[in-house]
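Researcher: I've been going back and forth with a colleague about how LysR family transcriptional regulator might be arranged in three dimensions. Neither of us has a model we trust, so I'd like an independent prediction. The organism is Amycolatopsis vastitatis, in case that matters for your notes. Sequence below.
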Amino acid sequence: MDLVGGCRAFVSVSETGSFTAGAALARIPQPVASRRIAALERHFGERLFDRSTRRARLTPFGRDVLPSARRLVRLADAMEHDARRAKLRPMRVAVPDTCGVRALAELAAEARELAIHLEFRAAAPGERAELVRTGEVRAALTAVPAEDGGWSVPLGLAAVTPPPGRVVHLETLRTGRRGERAAPRRHVWIQPEDDVPHVRDRLLRVRDAVGLPPAQVAVAGSLTSAAAEVFASADLLLCSAAQAVELGVSWRPIGELTLARGYGVAAALGEDADRLRTVLREAVGRCLGAGE
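Model: Here is an independent structure prediction for LysR family transcriptional regulator. You can compare it with whatever you and your colleague have in mind.
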């Protein structure tokens, strides 16, 4: 039986002295209140009210159990209140600092429609899982190999002047032979979000294979400093197509290899991870700049 519902009707009727007024106080129809109290009486095997008079008068048994019924109703109300507050408690998520303000705002707005309240903390790839471990966030979008992740973000090279052709080959960045008048050396900048082995090391292996000097493909201190180098020269930035659009530069895939960021979810609670992987999957993908 519904013990809480029965006690709520019992307390309301006892406080008003009327089944009709008590039902109104409990916000239920009068027949429902009567059925719930009757079920409570059957459960206890005793009458709660003396029905021989026009008013709903408590029996001695009813007076004895009324204090406990009131405590149960108060506890149920407190639990409902705590549950509502828990639903509104923000879920802090560590995200890449490549996620733009608008993309994060759209993700938060879509989550709110599902009664999920998100807050974000931008962090470097190596920090995000650690923030989950220390309890500073409830979940994190972690950097993983693209084939192991729930989201994949294709990477290419971007420059202010559109590179010729449909792809950029790293071998075309070699300077001229000794004695020839060489064009200024074009650097490829790796932003901190891609300073992870499954991205950085693959690109550096191609750099070495095509004979580029080590310094020609290097990790920048920040996305801002890397973008500044690109804006001030013919240098190229390793980035996603979505980032290239945001920065206003031209993007091409890399000719020698297919490169992508991969993202997974780390969370202290499985239900938090499931929310990001399932109901918010598409919104998270848009925020990361993942391909279709």
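Researcher: What would you highlight for our discussion?
Model: I'd start with this: The longest helix spans residues 60-88. After that, consider the following. The chain has a mean pLDDT of 90.
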